[in-house]
Amino acid sequence: MIFLELNKITVSPIKESSKSIYWHPPGDKSISQRATFLASLAEGTSRISDILWSEDTVNNLIALKKLGVGIEIDNNDVLVTGVGKFGYRASNNTVYLGNSATSSRIMISLLSAQKGRFKVDGNKMLRNRPMEWVVEPLKDMGAQIEWLNNYGCLPVGITGSRLDGMHHRIKVSSAQAVSALLYAALLADKKTRIYKKTKARDHTERIFKYFDLDLIDTGDYLELTPPEKILPHDIFVPGDISSAAFLIGLVAMQKSSGLELTVKKVNLNPTRTGFLEILQRMGADLTIINQGELCGEPIGEVIIRSGSELSGVKVSGDVFVQSMIDEIPILAAVAATAKGETVITDAFELANKDTNRIITTIELLNNFGIEAYPIEGGLVVTPGEFTSPGNLEVPNDHRISMVAMIIASFCNKKTEIYNWDTVRVSFPGFLEAFNLIGLASTDDDSSSLGPSIYMEMVE
Fold first, then answer.
1. Distance between CA atoms of residues 352 and 194, nearest Å
2. Where does the record say this protein resides (predicted)?
3. Is 326 a catalytic residue?
């Protein structure tokens, strides 16, 4: 049971549950953001269905609206009327993107080729996220970008200019670096070729192909020929596997059998399914059925059943770790309930998330009585019994907040968690989903899904 009071949440120990649940997770955050950006550059109106309604995506929509893009809400859908490739309107106001690193990096790329002067900024957390590995290649293309406070971080000032198509070699293992340069390539004067450091999320490549853009993927590099114009397309966003991972992990952690969760119409892009593969290796009763495709993205249903005895695993390899980079905090919680230690390496990118998630994940586990410690590029988790710290203030990291609530529900007594509402960044409906499984209940309106969060923030 969960009780709410201002920014404090009280989590009580869960009760055993025996039932079958069917759940459609909220729309994928990565795809929602990329879809709205691409639709904003089209000449015409695109309908985006099943978009994620969260602070990150809403800040994205508000920013585009202030730049002259048509944004209308039709029930739960978003109608985006694009302004063409070079139609963003210069704004005297800061283009504010809240907590979203994805939106800020793509936005910097797009504004670099627009007419006028712009300033891009975010909240305190986003100001600590690295931006130089996007900005420096853009400068090589001719972008005029300046650091307004600290080198390598927001805020930045941008004066629109012509971008030269060129060859890039990505230096970081991040899909956002590739995505930012692909969006810049749309606005360049000739072909752009991008050599990736490692295989990472390919949502941008898939949605570009869905929009019939001339993108070649050889495996070694991507090559984009900029289109004369972009035509609008209707987009259906699949469910977010990263959000679903929290409930999938929660069911896997349950020692007693009888609880079954079916996650419907969820994204099964192979660059995102590492967490599911690891759970199967650990011994979880997890199956995938009804696989298909939606707007260029693989989808299907994931069935997870409680009661399996889990074993610790070793997780390594750049490509494989990238496929579950956002799920490592919940994996660490699951690992604490397994038999034998779990070792996670090659997760260097975790240091540059909303927090240094290697450190904040370890600190969270330690606070709940679990032995965990850092190693180069990762961490080691030793299984044990969760014990409540009584009260805990979690850092400003939505994924750490959700893991904290899940762990607290397995403790021996109530836990008071402060700063829990950072979940609004990516999964405002987290508490309702918890309630669906029968482990929690809440009457809190701020966690509801739907465009109400847009109306709240735009006002």
1. 22
2. Cytoplasm
3. yes
